[in-house]
Design goal:
262 residues, six-stranded mixed beta sheet, four-stranded antiparallel beta sheet
Length: 262
């Protein structure tokens, strides 16, 4: 299988203010969010980063997406280094996070065209992608409605289609079903499986065991910023449920402070 994402020894620390140290009940001036983390993802697979809130999943994805720089280590997206070639990386990935906030004043139609031009798509390419994605996610009848007037689920759908407007090789989803109703969540998960069938590589972070079991081919379990397991889902669940497997590892590597968000 072709390696499309190679993550080598990523480490990221953050300075903690006095207020953060008080909230986290520690005296550490520097918090290690991601600690020497490595893994690989292959073409046409869904790789899940599984861990509780604050484990370092989002920080890892932000580094891969070139939104923040690692303190050390590197990652390669189909050969492009996040350190040496961040623009090349951005051309090859789509990144969807719950923190993506669309401007309330604009409409899905306007935003899709705007981001399409940012991705250097021509008018015909934008139209074809818009027709396909708006139909797929039932956005068409809402395309001229201001973002501020859309439901949470519809906003998530619009964010999703904008993140993949350029038909990227690798698609990164940070908690893709957070805050969605069951119908919208199913639409999103079904689409992820469809993308996989088209040969796309998908990286998703989640703390939901059932989502990993439904979607993922391989899984990396992150606890306290460290990768404590990296294997196929079938190997992890050969003799035990994924949830039980996780908590076995958590009992060994876990820390009560882990459940706080960095």
């Amino acid at each position: 299988m072709k390696e499309l994402l190679v993550v080598n020894n990523l480490t990221k620390t953050f300075k903690q203010s006095r207020k953060q140290r008080k909230l986290n009940k520690d005296n550490l001036k520097v918090k290690v969010a991601v600690d020497d983390l490595s893994f690989k993802a292959y073409k046409g697979e869904i790789y899940g980063l599984l861990g509780p809130n604050g484990a370092g999943k989002t920080t890892t994805l932000r580094m891969i997406a070139t939104l923040i720089k690692p303190d050390s280590g590197d990652a390669y997206v189909n050969g492009s280094s996040i350190i040496k070639d961040p623009y090349g990386v951005r051309n090859k990935i789509g990144f969807l996070t719950s923190e993506l906030k669309l401007e309330d004043y604009f409409t899905p139609n306007y935003l899709f065209d705007f981001f399409g031009k940012l991705q250097k798509l021509n008018d015909e390419e934008i139209k074809l992608r818009k027709d396909f994605l708006f139909k797929k996610f039932e956005i068409e009848e809402f395309k001229e409605v201001k973002i501020s007037d859309l439901s949470t689920g519809m906003k998530q759908k619009v964010s999703l289609v904008i993140s993949i407007i350029h038909d990227p090789e690798i698609i990164i989803f940070d908690e893709p079903t957070n805050g969605l109703d069951v119908i919208t969540a199913k639409t999103v998960t079904d689409f992820l499986l469809e993308l996989k069938s088209l040969g796309k590589t998908i990286i998703l972070s989640t703390h939901i065991f059932s989502l990993v079991e439904k979607l993922c081919d391989r899984v990396g379990i992150i606890i306290d910023g460290k990768m404590v397991a990296d294997d196929t889902l079938s190997n992890m669940t050969k003799d035990i449920s994924l949830e039980d497997y996780f908590f076995q590892l958590y009992n060994i590597h876990g820390d009560d402070d882990l459940w706080k968000t960095y």
